Amino acid sequence: MRLNGPMQLTADYRVAAVRPRDGGLVAVPTETVYGLAARADDAHAVARIYAAKGRPADHPLIVHVAQALALDEWADFVPEYARRLASEFWPGPMTLVVRRSARAGDFVTGGQDSVAVRVSSHPMMDATLSALISLTGDPAIGIAAPSANRFGRVSPTSAKHVLDEFSGIIGDEDLVLDGGESTIGVESTIIDCTDDIPRLLRAGAVTVDDIVRVTGLTPGMTSPVRASGTLDSHYAPTADVVITDASGLGATHATDEARIGVLALASVPTPIGMVRLSAPETNDDYARVLYAALREADALQLTTVLAVLPDDSGLGAAVIDRLRRAAHS
Ligand code: TXA
Ligand code: MG
């Protein structure tokens, strides 16, 4: 596998754009997390992604497109509130689930009658899509990209995470575009737009308050639609994640054998004998460092991570959601 610096670009995007056709995998950064990419019209390339991830075939993928106009090509019906969301938050960390058009194959949607669509703001995803558009002449062409991690594990927020995640699974013919660290750090907000009102399927940087402000509608919080990131147990490192509060943490004592990591906002002190994994200053920082900290816990062979949740403002809601799932056994 090659690691490309962000300086040697154009040629690599063209390579990245054609690569899924000749069998290799491509990991592409987005502002949320890194994705494992394949042309969304190529059943074989998509099948390889499922195999590399170990992902069950009925878990649908997100289709990344270059611009909001492509939404109508993938959707059978787009409600007005979804258009408002798209014009406000795309390109950005938001995915809309819409009723699918004939363009969205069963191999991408997991056989559901809806499809998830996103326009990422990351210049490398954008450049890869641009290369693919000029290659195919199709402005609505999509790149299917799940987070570039093994199924159920922690999502990658750097090129190195992708390499660690797939060492021994993907090889020399595969490609990772190195876009540095993802600036948001947790996956996109997923909003189900198949009905009269929006429903929040996964918390992310676009918050419930944002949805209310832009659509004038209060989103539903549950949906019959399946989302694998909404399985109870997900985003899990090997270490046990245990949720605690600041006073509970203060009362916990590390024994000699236990190797305990601490993840909390900087205002929470580290008890003696424990390993501080990260000390983010804000909820946004917490989201950005979260997955790297969980990976670090495994690299240090810690047995337990004690996590103190932030409040639910801004990206705090997404951090709480991911930590709860990571803690669920
Ligand atoms: O930030 C992100 O969204 C990243 C980057 C790479 O774009 N992608 C990502 O993909 O998180 P993935 O596959 O790890 O998570 C996508 C989620 C899954 O939980 C999947 O079940 C859900 O989106 N999803 C996809 N299509 C859906 C659909 N038609 N209906 C409901 N949920 C869907
Ligand atoms: Mg994922």
Blueprint of the fold:
Blueprint: E1 2-4, H1 10-18, E2 26-28, E3 35-39, H2 43-53, E4 62-64, H3 71-74, E5 75-77, H4 80-89, E6 94-100, H5 106-109, E7 114-118, H6 123-136, E8 143-144, H7 159-166, E9 175-177, E10 189-192, E11 199-202, H8 208-215, E12 240-244, H9 246-250, E13 260-263, E14 275-278, H10 283-299, E15 304-308, H11 316-327
Parallel strand pairs: 1-9, 2-9, 4-7, 6-10, 12-15, 13-14, 13-15
Antiparallel strand pairs: 2-3, 3-8, 4-8, 5-6, 6-7, 10-11
This protein binds threonylcarbamoyladenylate and magnesium ion.
The site of magnesium ion has 4 residues, from loops.
Key words describing this protein structure:
binds magnesium ion; single chain; 329 residues; alpha/beta; 11-stranded mixed β-sheet; globular; 4-stranded parallel β-sheet; binds threonylcarbamoyladenylate
Give a quick summary of the entry.
With 329 residues, this protein is α/β, with parallel strands linked by helices.
Descriptive overview:
With 329 residues, the protein is an alpha/beta fold. It is 31% helix and 18% strand. It is built from 11 helices and 15 strands. The strands form 2 sheets. Strands 1, 2, 3, 4, 5, 6, 7, 8, 9, 10 and 11 form an 11-stranded mixed β-sheet that branches. It has a 4-stranded parallel β-sheet with strand order 12-15-13-14. Helix 1 packs across helix 6 (123-136). The two termini are 34 Å apart. The site of threonylcarbamoyladenylate has 28 residues, from strand 6 and strand 7. Residues 146-147, 155, 229 line the site of magnesium ion.
